[in-house]
């Protein structure tokens, strides 16, 4: 009991310390009282200690399976592996909110104790804004969803964790999403602080660039992990279904990606200042909105939601933050004038602008589709909804155009470029891309959207690789290094640029996967007797029969399928299965996967007839799925290259010579 | 910024917005459906041509499955009322298919029966607590 009591007490105290940080910072700024500001700084440490104690206590209760606590009884059970006991910390409503608060406490601590240009003025305001958001969480945890609530009795066992979620990837996926969501609070707070201080230059962007990139990386990883889990565990053959919960993570990602691009324009040219402030506010608000969706139960989805007052509370908080940011932006709008103007219709600046319009267009479409049931209910009294084809129709063409922009971007000059010049440099890659697409077309792959994606993708690969090639070549001529060393050093000296290119290449690898699975997946649903076979693509599957095995806590019914190539060579046995649980939980299917870099053979056991041994199979042949996951890893590499601090002590003269040579 | 340039930029911007808006229009026309409760589906007599989506839980022992014709029939019930809606579906029987499990069906209504073209099983949310029977 003691551990729980300590945790509850620490959590309770945090409900007073966090608002103190907010109030002391705010009044410290208003009255220019340094002592108040210093006391807020000390309170930042104290609130971190309190939240850390509460979190530690909750983990201890979960690990020791103390079922007297409601939260522990709901999310763990005897025999649950240690990994999942700890993962239960961020598994349920109450625990995940505490986890949020913990991460925010760590972030606030780091922010408050790092110095940078302008930190003396900015810190108290940033601290106040962050503490204000944290106050909301601290109050909710204490008053609405307290993880230290107890049961009137101690049950013998807990509810345990859903079997589908007992997958190591699933323990990481929510953490990634949360870290992504929470991190955008920091650039948002800095943007607001910059406005309040009338410091609308690019300082706040430089200071928060790494925070933004790291949060963006986590958010991206969370989305990709979720897709991977859905593909391997849910057994429906796909990885993305435009579900409101998926959209809840995609929307802030779209806004953040637009922001990452337009921030470059402000850093370089002092343009789009107002736009950047709006974008980062939008990103932050969408992360809160996403939380409201996942925790609120306002929209149904194929994921079941938790219900309760949480949704309303979160939505009110989103509204409050929306009003706050709007007021600040309008109040300081006159300080957001651009230092330069657009000079030509074709330039890097306008390219970035188009990129932003497209991202926001896609975001608007996803947002509209997601809230469509709520809007139609408010207007007509009947809920209407849109399904996957809506999103495919709108978002996929926008995606193709964005990829084309990726190809054109590196070639277009800053300030002013002409269509004629652009045409000249784009003609060779366009011809190559066209030839590639024609070859694919004549091989029999004729889905128009996929072909358009392949065209755009080949285009990008060409322009990016030629950027690398030109850079390496110039460097080799100057330094007489080998090609590999040259490449490594060149990337090292301009990490932001080449990291960005690597991320673009990663996106292309993933796009090839999306376009191929989207356009050319095959699916057969077939009822087979033992001894019968089915052919799909270059594979022949021979069904041998069913077998049952008893495992701990479950009975596994599996079908044995031998996989042959079209030439008759055996590739091995696949065993799609269904698991029936002793505790009466709904059975779950366990699909079988034979994955090569080129195709995934994906078999789901859909139904069985125990008398005849007949079984119904759903067989998918998905081309190039592995590209999506491989692209995901390259994406991480590229972001890290871009994140890593650049070495400052460079030989400037040498750099200049190489630049001139390029 | 020269005036003509500004006009051209705005024109380009408006053009992009119009394209996106028309995509949204086309997409919405393709895939919009009415989201109804079981009771609304039974009483509102939707046209047999309009698509409806209903979510509910599978009624105990209502599942009839013919594996040779792949015909699946079951009834669903939601939290709002006591009425049940019979659903017919042609296609693979999802494995996670059993009594009480939540599903979302999309299709057309005909004489009080929903002929589904799409059948989705709700997936458990992250570490979702199961039925709220434990601590009452």
Largest sheet of chain B: 5 strands, mixed, barrel
Question: First CA to last CA of chain A: what distance?
Answer: 69 Å
Distance between the termini of chain B: 69 Å
Give me the number of helical elements of chain A. Answer: 20
Could you name the ranges of chain A where pLDDT drops below 50 across 5 or more consecutive residues? Answer: 300-306
Please compute the radius of gyration of chain B using only Cα atoms.
22 Å
Amount of helix of chain B: 25-40%
* Broad shape of chain B: elongated
Residue-averaged pLDDT of chain A, rounded? 89
- Unreliable residue stretches of chain B: 124-136
Overall geometry of chain A comes to: globular
What is the helix fraction of residues of chain A, given as a range? 55-70%
Total DSSP E strands of chain A: 11
Structure write-up:
- The complex is a heterodimer of chains A (662) and B (136).
- The N and C termini of chain A lie far apart (69 Å).
- In chain A, helix 9 runs antiparallel to helix 19 (625-643).
- The longest helix of chain A is centred in the middle third of the chain and has 33 residues, at 348-380.
- Chain A has 20 helices and eleven strands.
- The radius of gyration of chain A is 27 Å and the shape is globular.
- In chain A, the strands form two sheets. In chain A, strands 3, 4, 5, 6, 7 and 8 form a six-stranded antiparallel beta sheet that branches.
- Mean pLDDT of chain A is 89; it is low at 300-306.
- In chain A, 64% of the residues lie in helices and 12% in strands.
- With 662 residues, chain A is α+β, with helices and mostly antiparallel strands.
- By secondary structure, chain B is of the alpha+beta class.
- In chain B, 26% of the residues lie in helices and 34% in strands.
- Chain B is built from two helices and seven strands.
- Chain B has helices at 3-31, 38-43; strands spanning 32-36, 52-58, 64-66, 71-77, 85-90, 102-110, 113-121.
- Chain B has a five-stranded mixed beta barrel with strand order 2-4-5-7-6.
- In chain B, a hairpin with a 7-residue loop joins strand 4 (71-77) and strand 5.
- The longest helix of chain B is centred in the first third of the chain and has 29 residues, at 3-31.
- Chain B is elongated.
- The interface between A and B is large, with 76 and 54 residues.
């Amino acid at each position: 009991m003691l551990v729980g009591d300590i945790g509850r007490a620490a959590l309770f105290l945090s409900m007073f310390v966090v608002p103190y940080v907010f109030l002391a910072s705010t009044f410290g700024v208003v009255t220019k009282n340094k002592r108040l500001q210093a006391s807020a700084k000390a309170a930042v440490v104290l609130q971190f200690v309190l939240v850390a104690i509460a979190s530690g206590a909750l983990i201890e209760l979960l690990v020791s399976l103390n079922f007297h606590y409601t939260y522990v009884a709901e999310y763990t059970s005897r025999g649950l592996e240690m990994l999942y006991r700890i993962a239960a910390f961020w598994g349920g409503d109450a625990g995940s909110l505490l986890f949020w608060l913990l991460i925010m406490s760590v972030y606030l601590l780091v922010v408050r104790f790092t110095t940078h240009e302008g930190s003396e003025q900015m810190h108290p305001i940033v601290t106040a804004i962050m503490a204000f958001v944290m106050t909301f969480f601290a109050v909710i945890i204490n008053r609405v969803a307290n993880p230290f609530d107890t049961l009137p009795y101690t049950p013998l066992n807990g509810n345990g964790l859903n079997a589908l979620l007992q997958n190591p990837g699933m323990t990481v996926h929510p953490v990634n999403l949360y870290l992504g969501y929470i991190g955008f609070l920091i650039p948002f707070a800095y943007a607001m602080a910059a406005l309040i201080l009338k410091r609308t230059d690019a300082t706040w962007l430089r200071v928060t660039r790494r925070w933004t990139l790291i949060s963006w990386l986590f958010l991206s990883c969370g989305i990709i992990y979720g897709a991977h889990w859905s593909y391997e565990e849910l057994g429906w053959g796909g990885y993305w279904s435009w579900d409101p919960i998926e959209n809840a993570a995609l929307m802030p990602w779209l806004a953040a990606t637009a922001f990452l691009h337009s921030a470059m324009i402000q850093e370089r040219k002092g343009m789009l200042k107002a736009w950047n402030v709006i974008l980062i506010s939008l990103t932050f608000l969408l992360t809160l909105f996403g939380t409201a969706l996942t925790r609120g139960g306002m929209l149904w989805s194929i994921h079941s939601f938790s219900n309760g007052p949480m949704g309303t509370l979160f939505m009110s908080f989103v509204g409050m933050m929306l009003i706050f940011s709007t007021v600040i932006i309008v109040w300081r709008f006159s300080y957001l004038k651009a230092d330069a103007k657009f000079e030509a219709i074709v330039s890097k600046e306008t390219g970035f602008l188009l990129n932003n319009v497209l991202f926001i267009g896609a975001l608007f479409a996803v947002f509209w589709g997601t809230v469509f049931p709520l809007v139609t209910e408010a207007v007509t009294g009947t809920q209407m909804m849109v399904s996957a084809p809506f999103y495919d129709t709108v978002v996929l063409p926008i995606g193709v155009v964005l990829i084309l922009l990726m190809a054109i971007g590196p070639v277009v000059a800053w300030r002013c470029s002409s269509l004629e010049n652009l045409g000249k440099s784009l003609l060779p890659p366009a011809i190559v891309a066209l030839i590639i697409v024609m070859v694919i077309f004549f091989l029999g792959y004729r889905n128009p959207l996929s072909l358009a994606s392949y065209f755009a993708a080949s285009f990008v690969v060409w322009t990016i690789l030629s950027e690398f090639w030109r850079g390496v070549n110039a460097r080799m001529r100057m330094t007489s290094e080998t090609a590999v060393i040259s490449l490594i050093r060149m990337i090292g000296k301009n990490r932001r640029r080449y990291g960005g290119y690597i991320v673009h290449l990663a996106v292309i690898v993933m796009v090839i996967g999306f376009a191929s699975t989207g356009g050319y997946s095959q699916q057969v649903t077939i009822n087979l007797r033992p001894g019968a076979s089915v052919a799909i693509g270059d594979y022949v599957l021979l069904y041998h029969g069913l077998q049952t095995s008893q495992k701990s806590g479950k009975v596994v019914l599996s079908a044995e399928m031998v996989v042959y190539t079209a030439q008759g060579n055996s590739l091995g046995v696949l065993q799609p299965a269904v698991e029936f649980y002793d505790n009466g939980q709904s059975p779950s299917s366990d699909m079988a996967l034979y994955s090569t870099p080129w195709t995934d053979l994906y078999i789901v056991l859909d139904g069985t007839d125990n008398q005849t041994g007949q079984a119904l199979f759903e067989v998918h042949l998905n081309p190039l799925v592995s590209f999506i996951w491989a692209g995901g890893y390259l994406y991480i590499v590229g972001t890290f290259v871009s994140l890593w601090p650049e070495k400052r002590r460079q030989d400037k003269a040498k750099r200049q010579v190489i630049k001139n040579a390029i | 910024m020269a005036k003509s340039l500004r006009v051209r930029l705005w024109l380009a911007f408006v053009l992009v917005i119009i394209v996106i808006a028309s995509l949204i229009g086309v997409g919405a026309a393709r895939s919009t459906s009415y989201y109804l409760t079981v009771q609304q589906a039974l009483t509102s007599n939707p046209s047999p041509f309009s698509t409806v989506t209903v979510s509910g839980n599978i009624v105990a022992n209502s599942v009839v499955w013919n594996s040779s014709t792949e015909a699946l029939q079951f009834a669903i019930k939601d939290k709002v009322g006591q009425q049940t809606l019979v659903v017919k579906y042609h296609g693979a029987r999802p494995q996670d298919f059993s009594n009480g499990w939540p599903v979302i069906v999309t299709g057309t209504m005909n004489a009080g029966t929903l002929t589904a073209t799409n059948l989705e099983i709700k997936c458990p949310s992250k570490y979702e607590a199961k039925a709220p029977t434990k601590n009452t």
